[in-house]
Specification:
Blueprint (H helix, E strand, L loop, with lengths): L16 H28 L4 H9 L18 H14 L5 H17 L2 H13 L4 E4 L15 E4 L3 E12 L6 E7 L9 E7 L5 E6 L10 E12 L3 E2 L5 H37 L1 E2 L2 E2 L4 H29 L5 H14 L3 H6 L11 H8 L10 H10 L2
Parallel strand pairs: 1-4
Antiparallel strand pairs: 2-3, 3-7, 4-5, 5-8, 6-7, 9-10
Helix pairs in contact: 1-3, 3-6, 4-5, 4-6, 6-7, 6-8, 7-8, 8-11
This protein binds flavin-adenine dinucleotide (FAD).
Length: 386
Amino acid sequence: MDDTTRSGERWLAPFTPEHEEFRRTIGRFIREEVLPRHADWEQQGCVPRELWRKAGRIGMLLTNIPDEYGGGGGDFLYTVVVLEEIALSLASGITGFTTHSDIVAPYLLNFGTEAQKKANLPGMASGDIVASVAMTEPGAGSDLKAIRTTAVRSSAGYVINGQKTFITNGYHADRVLIVAKTDPEAGARGISLFWADTATPGFKRGRLLDKVGQKAQDTCELFFQDMEVPHDALVGEENKGFGYLMKELARERLMIAVRCAAALDAALDWTIAYTKERQAFGKPLLDNQHIRFKLADIKTLARATRSLVDSSILRYMKGELRSEDAAMAKLWATEATRAIDDLLQFHGGYGYMREYAIGRAYTDVRPNRIYGGSSEIMREIIARSL
Ligand SMILES: Cc1cc2nc3c(=O)[nH]c(=O)nc-3n(C[C@H](O)[C@H](O)[C@H](O)COP(=O)(O)OP(=O)(O)OC[C@H]3O[C@@H](n4cnc5c(N)ncnc54)[C@H](O)[C@@H]3O)c2cc1C
């Protein structure tokens, strides 16, 4: 790996020796505990539940949550390290670790009550509790206001009815942050968030969805039928959920951009190595000007992506990353991964084989242009700032 892509020369993202030590720990964990069995888990459609506890033991979960709640107490660069190491090693089956740690946990940290934080964050950090966020429904993804899941007040709390789809970690989830309508007539102003225990009667999981890539990462449908949750399952204030989502989605979009910048760097490195080695017409592939120029373009693209993503990380850490900035980082970095198609091309037929990293990278990066808000929605957000 080119040392400008991990921490060396990353002046915009100031990693310290402690981040480097943490990076080595995460890299070792992935090499020893994840990669040797990843292909089996791809067949199964999920990683084993025990892997979550192993990850908890080495401090891989909730790195950016304060230690008083059992988290690592680190800054956002620890999250970046985890995202990058997963992306660089193609351990896509544990992509959901970062959804759990850096997308779901911050909702509790930022909007939850002290009791909700104390009851859940330590267990999430240890891997004893696995968490998901359930926004998307069969009839509503990009247009979140159009969700149909409802939460109706009852004497004991709220009764939730509805259905969610494409939910990361849904298969193993012990808790789900459910996005539901508490005032169906009020559009975005009628949405609330609920922290639900999946042991509650009325909760049902659907099948593991058969995805094009990221095959070891569980993605599931969820069903709620007269599922009664207590009053204190409400996260934050009633009908304020949409605002909470918009606030947290900026962080999620930055995380996706970080992952894509790393994936593009890794795919480029594999391709440079491959084209130096592979011979055709009596010379290495890289000796052809067409391939050299194409790789030069992609190297430039990867460097530009890295610069935008690292400066966005820095702005996020200073509290200055606006929603349109996060959208630009996500749009640019995810669209840049289209270059992985060219990188696959230079591997010839081998590129199309899943045993080659480039083939898996090609399918694994694809949903980044869809989830967390699609490229089209990113353009809408950016356009609103014009
Ligand atoms: C692997 C994977 C994991 C996921 N994990 C989760 C999860 O953990 N939790 C969760 O809640 N969701 C999750 N999702 C769902 C994801 O967030 C949605 O798929 C995404 O928001 C798009 O919604 P949709 O699929 O309903 O597409 P649609 O909203 O139906 O959009 C279809 C197409 O139309 C385009 N489009 C829509 N509106 C406009 C417009 N106004 N202008 C131009 N184009 C438009 C979209 O960009 C897209 O290209 C996951 C999805 C995948 C693939």
